[in-house]
Amino acid sequence: GISGQAGALRLAIARALIEADSEDRPPLKKAGFLTRDARATERKKYGLKKARKAPQYSKR
């Protein structure tokens, strides 16, 4: 969404600044601007409705 795009833009700008001047690297790294957000959607598993949501359980 919007937040993810903003994070990607932040990383792209930080990388471009390093390409232009490598002295910018330490402060950007300390601020956390060079770390990619590695989270990705979890895959759907068979036997489940979604990645973690199980079908409704009935005792009887």
Brief digest:
It is built from 2 helices and no strands. It is mainly α. The longest helix has 19 residues, at 2-20.
Characteristics:
60 residues; mainly alpha; 2 helices
Task: Note down, in words, how this protein is organized.
The chain has two helices and no strands. The longest helix is centred in the first third of the chain and has 19 residues, at 2-20. The chain is mainly α and 60 residues long. The protein has helices at 2-20, 25-31. The termini are far apart. The chain has a domain at 2-31. It is rod-shaped, with a radius of gyration of 20 Å.
Helix content: 40-55%
Mean pLDDT: 94
- DSSP summary, beta strand count: 0
Q: Which parts are unreliable, with pLDDT below 50 for 5 consecutive residues or more?
A: none
Quaternary status: single chain
Please write the string of helix (H) and strand (E) elements.
HH
Shape: rod-shaped
Largest sheet geometry: none
Q: Please give the radius of gyration in angstroms.
A: 20 Å
Assign the structural class, choosing from mainly alpha, mainly beta, alpha/beta, alpha+beta, or little secondary structure.
mainly alpha
Strand composition percent = under 5%
Number of helices: 2
